Amino acid sequence: MIMGESVSSSSSNSSLTTDIAQAQTTTVLDTTVPNPLTPPPVGSSSSALPAAPQDQVFDLRSFAGKLVRGLFNTVSITADYDNTVGVYRIEDDQGTVIDPTNGRSYAPGSEGYSLAAVRRSQADGITFSARAGDVPVELQGGAVYAPYLVANNTVESVLQGTGANVYFNFTAANADGFDHFRTTEDGKIAVEDLFNGGDQDFNDAIVSATFEAPTIDLPTAPEDQVLDLRSQGGKAVRLLINSQSITADYENTVGLYRIEDALGTVIDPSTGTSYKPGDDGYGLAIVRRSQADGVTFSARAGDVDATLDGGNVYATYLIADATVDDVTSGRGANVYSNFVAANADGFDHFIGSGTTAAGSTGFSIEDLFGGGDLDFNDAIVTITFESAEPA
């Protein structure tokens, strides 16, 4: 489950809400799509929203490449059940979900759909109690998320195969064939938790959500150790990097990785999970991120040409006397970030030189655990901004 900071639930030009023009009044949703789409690659959602429950999904495709903060508000009015609510990423307008544990795709109604959806919500969605009230959340932009409810039970019961009833806004996925989801006139999602509809009061869980694209304020301490390319949005920025190692006995690896906010949050591109400095797995996530859309190079490389996507902020890291392969294969290499909280020794291994009027920046790095000899010349890196071309 990915949690984040609370944000205002008031709407604005940058907000995305679940508001709709009118209430849905049909008893059973028609999820038939005239021209079904071929499921797209993992990590991307189709360009079409579901034909019937389109007002019951959360469309974050306009925030591609960003970590989107949101606020769910959920209440349970009369339910005797202790229900669990969740959202999971779907891949197309039919509600196809990819099980993150085996990579297989499941359509609503297929055996294994409920388990796959719950596993997906655990990987890069969210689950919470229907009585929770306000629930802050962080989701990866560029995808569409659908809701579900576990009736009077927990996600653990679903994962353990104890036979809990799981209801979706895609009616074909429900064992009773009943449409358990409605949309209210003020844009909230209302859920009925009883098998076959029960009393059909649709107030057993009522959920609303507000999302906004985060703005990145530069970190207050290591602001001279990050690469701020936000002014070059939509452009490919060419960099000339000069990297030297003056006295180090180590064969160090240096890299740049994209961060999502001032805390240094990074999204692991292989799982979609977000990590903050200090979280278990942060070092692996930043190395994977640098391989996806950053850059890595030897501390002794000399001149290095690189291109990065504008519109983002990049932080720096060093792998001490090891390689990217050592980190990704779990061989225990020390990874140091310019965000001190990420470093196992709690030491600040980076000194920044600031950005010059000529458009260059640089930093010096100490590669020894705990600071060692404190010479800060084990990797000295200078970066010059060469050009920005349309992406």
From TrEMBL:
InterPro entries reported in the protein's UniProt record: DUF4114
Compositional bias annotation for Low complexity: 26-35
Region (Disordered): 26-50
One matching Pfam family: DUF4114
Residue ranges annotated for the DUF4114 domain, each copy included: 140-211, 310-385
The protein's name: DUF4114 domain-containing protein
Source species taxonomy: Bacteria, Bacillati, Cyanobacteriota, Cyanophyceae, Leptolyngbyales
